[in-house]
């Protein structure tokens, strides 16, 4: 009797719907989990390219060399950048430029797009934004005066991996090598400058260095990754993660709802048809 009831219920369309709903719910949750994991890994990979590093340290003054040496001892790659605004001259024509001085390791991650392609700021030369070239009526191979230094224009800088978006940055970009900064005389005590140090490595190395570094930071110094970045890229990363979490939650809710509807349909059908095996046995005896 129990076996007949079990087989009848097992082969009933209502229970089949329940099993299909359960299978579909599990498949959807697993698929979304896999997609979310892949997207998160992809976003993490792109985030290091957006920053040209895994972590960054921003400071209004140069940090102690011992901090950088400690990072290198822990196996981290370290890059240095200095940004400041200064006047540039092409002959007697002046133009304010936003200078970005980088070391030879730049960019640690991502691509620096230049014209001609494959250029990097070398000592004695600079890369100019197309707008700065147009404003000063310059071309590749000409020279430009940056403070006290006269530097050769090696080409145009089209896109920086860590440029971000700053609506208040009105001056066009001039990119140079850190080795030429002292020659310009543009950076003096009291000058408004921003130092950025980029660090690359695995999570264990970064976490260990972060624990060592944070207690030593001054109020004007900030250690951050893209997730903690207050800029547009940081907010985009945060919204992407929130979207993935919301998608997973909605998928789970829909799966639960589908199973609940299927179970409700099955239970109603069983009650209407007297699907209980004891009732079925009682009906059989009454008929006999």
From TrEMBL:
Keywords for the protein's UniProt record, in alphabetical order: Membrane, Transmembrane, Transmembrane helix
GO CC, alphabetical = plasma membrane
Keyword Transmembrane helix attributed: yes
Q: Which domain of life is it from?
A: Bacteria
The reply on keyword Membrane is yes
Task: Extract the InterPro entries matched here.
Answer: Membrane_comp_ABC_pdt
Transmembrane region(s)? 243-263
Its name, as the record gives it, is Putative membrane spanning protein
Organism annotation: Shigella dysenteriae WRSd3
């Amino acid at each position: 009797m129990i076996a007949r009831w079990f087989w009848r219920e097992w082969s009933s369309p209502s229970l089949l719907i329940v099993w299909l709903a359960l299978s579909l719910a599990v498949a959807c949750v697993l698929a979304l989990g896999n997609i979310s994991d892949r997207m998160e890994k992809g976003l993490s990979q792109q985030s290091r390219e957006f920053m040209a590093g895994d972590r960054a340290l921003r400071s209004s003054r140069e940090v102690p060399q011992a901090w950088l040496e400690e990072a290198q001892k822990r196996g981290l790659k370290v890059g240095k950048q200095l940004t400041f605004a200064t006047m540039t001259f092409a002959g007697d024509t002046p133009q304010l430029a936003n200078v970005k001085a980088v070391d030879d390791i730049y960019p640690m991650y991502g691509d620096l797009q230049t014209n001609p392609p494959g250029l990097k700021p070398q000592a004695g030369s600079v890369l100019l934004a197309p707008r700065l070239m147009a404003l000063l009526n310059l071309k590749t191979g000409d020279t430009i005066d940056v403070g006290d230094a006269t530097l050769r224009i090696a080409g145009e800088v089209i896109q920086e991996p860590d440029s971000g978006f700053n609506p208040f940055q009105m001056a066009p970009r001039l990119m140079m090598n850190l080795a030429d900064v002292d020659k310009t005389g543009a950076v003096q005590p009291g000058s408004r400058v921003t130092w950025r140090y980029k660090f690359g490595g695995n999570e264990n190395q970064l976490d260990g260095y972060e624990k060592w570094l944070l207690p030593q930071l001054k109020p004007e110094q900030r250690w951050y990754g893209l997730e903690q970045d207050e800029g547009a890229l940081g907010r985009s990363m945060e919204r992407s993660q929130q979207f993935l979490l919301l998608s997973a939650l909605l998928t789970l809710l829909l799966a639960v709802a589908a199973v609940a509807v299927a179970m409700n349909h099955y239970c109603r059908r069983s009650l209407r048809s007297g699907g209980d095996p004891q009732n079925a046995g009682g009906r059989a005896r009454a008929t006999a």
